[in-house]
## 1
Amino acid sequence: MQQKMKVSSNNFGGIGWYYIILTAVLFMLSAGLTTDTLNVTIDGFSALHGWANTTLLHYSTLAGYVSIAAAVLIGWLVSKKGTRAIMTATLIVSGVATIWWGYVQSPFQYLIACAIVVSCNNGYAHLCSSNLAAIWFPVRKGLFLGWSTMGIQISAVILVPIMNALLTSFGISYAYLFFGILQLVLAVVVWLTVRNTPEELGKHPDNTPMTEQEAAEYRKANEQMRSNLTIGTILKTKQTWLIAIPFGILYMTAVGVMSQLIPRLTEQGFEMSEAMFVMSVASLIGVAGSYLYGWIDVKFGVKKSSVIIMLDFIIAMLLMILPFNMVTLWISMVLVGAGLGGVANLSASFAASVFGPTGFAMAFSVINPLMGIIRVTAMSVLAFGLEYFGGYSGAYAIFFGLCIVAFFLTLLASD
């Protein structure tokens, strides 16, 4: 099959491009609700209820830990029930919880609502969408995800202004009501249009013509790999840890930077509109980086791509530690913006390369939570740096050191 197809080809077919757009929207919502819109909503909740900003940042970390346990369950359900059913279910639960989130009256209710939304967002975006890519386009999964993870970058451009406008005009309850209803509508769309495998629509993996014999051999090989895969086997595999730890560090770094970028800029004297403009432009430039990492993946391999993205984050964090100026700001924003989409892309692609398309769901149900254990500490690391290390530069110095660790671990990995 691979000999008949140029691996860097964008010939995904009509259904393939539809799935790219759909998953891009899901990635956008996930990044927006759990990271980007916190730039404005945390202050909104604090102003409305008198809750401390640092307390809500720590709650985001706690919610992330809850999502880790949920990811194991969701990933297992995806491997048993298929992408369509679980993507639909997580969108429904997240939609209802998002609506409730806007009406919470106590910090405990805030924590529970946030935990449910973060868990389900991770489910329908990172677990379900990545599984869809691995099954439908096993050879070109990196390129598929290179396109779809652009939604992560677009989130800052589209969702933060929308959330801020809704928050300013109608209040936080109606702002979250809007995003909750949007997820419920998407649940209906997913149920009507998504299929678990290309064979269900009479198509073949990677939109590639195959004889019946080739298709049967392909299915047999993948089923054999899935039957031999257990959680114990995954945990004993060295590559599991060499994917989870480095990419978990990068996720933590990206979330730590992007979730509080606007407060950092306003601290430096930017007006709110100016800070949002910087975030939006940097994210738009970073969209190209999301595709670039997908292209590098299929062209040169996921290992080389992963080493490059580690260097990307090291340079970005070094620039953010330096005394604040517009040149280092813009360069670091482009690097982080491009890298954020690349992390979602390459972590899933690496797992699929090691465990195969049908083994991906089970493997990623372990790898994703392991990354999550590291990722969700972002808010606490940020809060710790702000309080004890002299502000944002101190927090970025911690991220810088951890990114160096991630780089050396990636050098030990193999795809």
## 2
Amino acid sequence: MANVKPYIALLKSRLSLTVAFSGTFGYLLAPVEHKPLDILLITLAGFVLTGAANIVNQLKEIELDKLMKRTAKRPLPTETLQPKQAALYGYGLAIVALGLLSYFTWKAAAIGLLSYILYGYVYTPLKRVGPISVFVGAFPGAFPPMIGWVAATGHFGWEPGILFAIQFFWQFPHFWAIAWVADADYRKAGFKMLPNDGKKDIKTAFTIMIYTLFLVPLGFVPYLMHMTGIKSAIITVMAGILFLCQTFYLMMRPTDKAAKWMMFGSFFYLLIMQIALLFDQV
């Protein structure tokens, strides 16, 4: 069992489960019959694909992870696992995940492959370049609900597009709240993710607010597109407003404590939005 633990740690299970739920959310929201086995498979595909992308990220940042307190004890920096072992494991997982998505449709597998490449091979090295990494990382971060919808229906459209848009704009306050809180650690590794020259000030808080602002009107669009009912629209818009209020508080008090509350708020917003839409389908 001890030999299995490092491989489990590489998956970053909490993050992978969150992403997998977003994919399942998109799948369940689609107006088609949902078979229990298919629900299990789409969830497994999302979890495994995210885990595979996380492994690429860790393979490319072994030396950098050694510099940061929160990552120094991961399997690769501590040499609990060798890079070759992790690479074979990660590539195997990626093949399994893409195979599972192909079971539904090649379109879902294609988006999954793009997400894997963007996260592991584009976003990861850009973290040391500047906040452009957050923009690039927002794409794979927003793909899961689109993948779920496309897996269920077999086609693209405005519906998966709006699911993508909501989660895309959500990525910015989410990423930047984390980057604000972890700034000292990130600087040790040379990560430059905060906007406005990386300063934790009112200008950065204002930038975060602008991106969060988009979530308020976007929360009403699924109702306008007849995807869900008015109740979920009200709940989602209200959740967006409350999340936006956290950015105002960050502007008034640009502190780590306010950013941490906002980080937790981002998780609550995403969960509330997804549950509200799921339970209010038309």
## 3
Amino acid sequence: MAAIFLQSFSFLLVILVAYLSKKIGLLTPKDGTILQKIILNLTLPATIIIGFNAVKVDLILFVMVGLGLLSNLILILVGGFIWQKKDAADRSLMMFSQAGYNIGNFTIPFVQGLFPAAIPFIGSFDMGNALMLFGGSPMIVDKVLGIDREEAGYIQRALSLFRSPSFTTYVVMFLLALLGIVLPTELTSIFELFASGNAFLSMFMVGLYLEIDMNAQALKKVSKLLSARYALAVPVALLFYFVLPLPELVRLSLVLVALAPVGTVSTINMIIYGNERAISSFLSSISIILSLILMTLALTLLN
């Protein structure tokens, strides 16, 4: 329990230091863009490689991919139902705010120091999550809102997944695991060096992107969106942990992904569908803080 609180406090401290560094002018959000490139191209793929290496592929990993797809599908439809009388922009905002999880930049860094054995399960879930974020979710939103978009647009989105080093690393390591290929220690020791900085850089990037300035009207809207998200996320987490007949570590992994913050791609999609960048950024920032609190509480209560 002490390790969990120490980890959460450390993460919060790094986020706060980065945020204050931005406020006093030492750093800027543009520096966060540089960190994001380092994380997405180097430290996160290295973390995935370490986490997946020597993993034995069984049915559970495929189940996790399916749950990543299914949870996104159900939650985005629920979001469309909640604000069915709103205009298209607001309705898309609700739908994208309910589905999609920030796993690569938040959940994996959160667990890699506490439960590194959970990374293959969380990573498998993220494969399904990514497929929805980059293609499935926008397709569903278009259908619900009655938007006609060329099919080539969806194919292009799906293919763009492989421009993501993280997703490509998931697929490659999954295939290596299927073939029973294990990377040698001499090679993984190099990846471990890169992976060791992933958690710190990810939380520091979060702090640089953190936005907490918002007018009363926007704050009210974000409050409704996040209230709906976590009112759904908590029962889903309970369902995952207490109902699914899976090993405890897998169920604990599912609890953490269910309580994860709004996905980065979700916030980008909100803007694409006509919502203000400021609201999307604020929504993402507050969800990170709330998720950190809820994930800490969940681990404390379930351990």
## 4
Amino acid sequence: MNRTINNFHSIPLPSLFKELHSSNHGLSQKEALRRLKKYGLNEIKEIGKIRWYQILLRQFLNIMMGVLAVAMVVSFWVGETLDAGAILVIIIINAVIGFIQEYKAEKAVEALKKMSAPFGLVIRDGKRVRIPAQNLVPGDILVLEEGEQIPADGRLLELAQMQTIEASLTGES
């Protein structure tokens, strides 16, 4: 399992088990610990808290804003103050819209981290075991029961009358 598996949803199940060195009996505890050391915790990595003013400053630090700023200065320098003012308004509107979108995206990632399931029911050594969701590893067989949150990406092996509520991801009521 040295390479990244693409399109794992369309690989035939026996081939997927072979690629992940797993089975429908789950992983052994020893193998799960080895994979945990190799791949790390199942959690959203937080690179560092980004402050609102950093997001706002980033809106001005791109090539397009630089081109607009140069155009504004040149327009003002040649006496086209109306054009320079229009370009300044465009720069401000662009920065505000970019700031709002990026700020909302940061808040959405924070909300997703808070909503993630704290535990997962997996099959280890052929038995069902409840473990912290951060200890899930590639190849784990996750058992979902009614009313549970899904603690990791995965592929459905078998199901009966499954329904999901995706409102927390899509924002719909």
